[in-house]
Design brief:
The complex is a heterodimer. By secondary structure, chain A is an all-beta fold. Helix content of chain A is 0%, strand content 59%. Chain A starts with a strand and ends with a strand. In chain B, a hairpin with a 5-residue loop joins strand 5 (44-51) and strand 6. Classes of the chains: A mainly beta, B mainly beta.
């Protein structure tokens, strides 16, 4: 069973709308959690990184939350743009090994 | 900063040939580089970890004689897929890390799309 589960697997949203992506993990011990954006045919690009003590972190229109007690994280995209169409990958660092989720595939339509 | 490049970005080859993929850290010294493989709609799967000047450590199930990794300098690692077959067709991504693993910040390359005919 994958140690990092993301939902929904895919979603379609209208340009300008908001959306929230979920990440649940079982990785232990926990060091930090990152959200990456991966455009089709490209490598992942880091959006946010959160350590155990951080609950919220923003990067422009991206806001990540972390609940280390329930082992859940979310990524909220505000006022989506067409360029936000991509796969968003949740990556958890535990014991110096990275565990990758399969990604949330987001498609923004005009 | 922290830019990682890969070359080529895509390659098509005949079955049985070997293909070499380069991964370079452009503005930092990468003491450790990682090679991943990604199939469509799947997670990145770690293939091997390499430290400069030493042999790579391969993940379980990855054939070291088929996927040759060389990390000859602090800015360059190469992955050679030997005697490639169609099932080796995939998206190969490298990442590089500078310094100690405690923070484990890895910077990813843009990936190489390999298609074996």
């Amino acid at each position: 069973k994958n140690q990092v589960e993301q939902s929904p697997q895919s979603l379609i949203i209208l340009e300008g709308k908001n959306c929230t992506l979920q990440c649940n993990y079982t990785v232990s011990p926990f060091s930090n959690l990152r959200w990456y954006k991966q455009d089709t045919g490209r490598g992942p690009v880091s959006l946010t990184i959160m350590t155990f003590s951080e609950n919220t972190k923003s990067n422009g229109r991206y806001t990540a939350t972390l609940d280390a007690d329930t082992k859940q994280s979310s990524l909220h995209i505000t006022a989506s743009q067409l360029s936000d169409s991509a796969s968003y990958i949740c990556v958890v660092n535990g014991n110096n090994r990275l565990a990758f989720g399969k990604g949330n595939q987001v498609v923004v339509i005009p | 900063g922290a830019v990682v490049s890969q070359h080529p970005s895509w390659v098509i080859c005949k079955s049985g040939t070997s293909v070499k993929i380069e991964c370079r850290s452009l503005d930092f010294q990468a003491t450790t580089m990682f090679w991943y493989r990604q199939f469509p709609k799947q997670s990145l799967m770690l293939m091997a970890t390499s430290n400069e000047g030493s042999k790579a450590t391969y993940e379980q199930g990855v054939e070291k004689d088929k996927f040759l990794i060389n990390h000859a300098s602090l800015t360059l690692s190469t992955l050679t897929v030997t005697s490639a077959h169609p099932e080796d067709s995939s998206f190969y991504i490298c990442s590089a890390r500078e310094g100690l693993p405690s923070y484990n910040e890895q910077f990813f390359g843009p990936g190489t799309r390999l298609t074996v005919l």
